[in-house]
Amino acid sequence: IISFFEEKTDIQTKIGDHSGWLSDDTDVKYNDLRYAQLIGTIALTAEFRHQHPIEETEKDPTKTPKLPNKNFKEKVTQRMFNFFNDDNKLS
Q: Where are the alpha helices (DSSP H) in the chain?
């Protein structure tokens, strides 16, 4: 799977260890590597939200929201979502 992903995305990948993100009182079952992707996604989302807080403002329905420029993590995430999209053709 790692070789296939690297070939399709041109992104170097490695197997990671998510145990550093868990607290001491975390249930033991979450140490299983099957949870690594989920925990990594949650950790990156929390970091992103900390750096880019959601502003509570009144919405004007006549204005379209201005989207911020995508940073590196967002570009990689978007490529990953597109990679797993059912419409992709494997060649």
A: 2-9, 36-51, 72-83
